[in-house]
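Write out the 3D structure for:
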Amino acid sequence: MNSHGVELEDSALAGKKSLKLSFGGSSCTGKKAENQDAFAAHLPSGSARFLKGGLACIADGVSCSENSQQASSTSVTLFIEDYFSTPDTWPVKMAAARVLSSLNSWLYHHGQQGHARHNGLVTTFSGVIFKSNTAHFFHVGDSRIYILRQGTLQQITRDHCHQQAGRKTFLTRALGMDSCLEVDYQAEDIALGDIILLTTDGIHEWLTECEMVDIIGDHQGQLEQATAALSSAALANGSDDNLTCLLVTVDELPLAEIDEVHRSLTQLVIPPVLQEGQKIDHYEVQLVIHSGTRSHLYLVKDIHNDQLQVLKAPSENFKDDVQYLEGFIREQWVGRRLNHSGVMKILPRPENSPFLYHVCEYIEGITLRQWIYDNPKPDLKPVRDMLDKIIKSLRAFQRLGMIHRDLKPENIMIDKRGRPIIIDFGTVFVAGLGEISTPLMEHVPVGSVDYIAPEYLLGEPATDRSDIFSLAVIAYEIICGKLPFDISDMQRNPPTKFEAWQYQSIRKYRKDVPVWIDLALRKALSPRPRFRYPAYSEFIHDLLQPNAQLMKRFKSAPLLERNPMAFWKFLCGLLFAVICFQYFWFFS
């Protein structure tokens, strides 16, 4: 993957403004013989700043351990290194939690190798990750994080310690203390001019908040001098511990105006409509696959290696539609990060091309829609095998914090070997990108209304369970050729309440489908997300073998719920019998 191409995609998604921070810190032994504190900060450049943000953290190793200095310094350095190594698509909370959990396990494991438990690798940890217009705080122990805004200092963290007589305290929570870790997390919007202060107890236990505000104010814009002054003041007030503090100022935020985003998105030219034999860059059009109002698809040959590929270009009809252009660029961004045999690959585009398009692998086969037409009543075994393969592909999205949001038969190809391959990533939600502030807001849900999950259609955020719903609609349609819900005029007047989605038993269309498969589909297609399967594995498991609990619940349910058709037939028959009885009673 060439870095130039990635930078181009990221800048188009972000606009020109970027996050700018200033750091200043100091750490000294104070009256102790060894400095057991540590701090670190990093603000990367380029796309890493846009996708991952900036980071500052502080740690204080426990005084009773001979390994305290190793614990604190290892924590801050490895946290920064490992955080910036996590996938760009992960949200901050997920990435930091994974890193801290791994770091805690390493500290705890190596701490247990020593001969004395009191020499374990145990340290407090407080960190803040700045991404877009939000600060994400992670904290365990009794180091602290404050926000200084408009002259008011607010403590963000709470101390995890127990107060003994006098000033003596002992930690109740820390990194490396236990095999299980509970970390406090909080997210706050940040503003220009905000100052973040991170301290160890050698500072904040010996200075009042008013004293800290005054000292920082006296050294406005001079962060190194301010932190040194805080340490000197704490020492003068009688601090007998190491003295460490770190200041971060917010100098610029990346939220762009809509005009700036529009300029970024339109810096590349939309290609004209191409015909067979024409060339664009080093691609020659072999066949026009599709030419529509939204996009154009061409089968092209790379003249450098004679390989066949598919070139997708946006339509000129949308040259001023920033929402559409952002989705088009996001599709390339997503495709370049996915690597799974069941997901279409998007290939690197020429570095210096002035045109907006992307190049995909050529999948020789048919759409799942065509497969459904060709197989009106398929056997259940190949259907389950196909669904299992689709689920494995969807897990590739899930691992990267992505939700497809537009699963439908048209967006799944069946190749010559019968393998399903997911295509079209223009509507994919990326949790990591979702944290980045943008003036581009989705005013209407994306995706086909026949397959879209109810919660998303009703204005709620999509989750993994939303893709499970869409997959279940596809499964239902593959088996019987129908949709599971009969909602009139779905396209023009989509429902506004969950109750509109009333499941129709698949056995209405195929009597040979076992009841337990019908029950599995019913659960996966529950209108409310909390009643659906929480994981793909549970859904496919129940399609392979009966779920005892679902079967038990079904058998104990009243007839109206188990078989509405049979219930109404019985009721109509009973009413007819009553009418006949009354007729013969009165006229005999």
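The domain at 18-252 is CATH 3.60.40.10 (Phosphatase 2c; domain 1).
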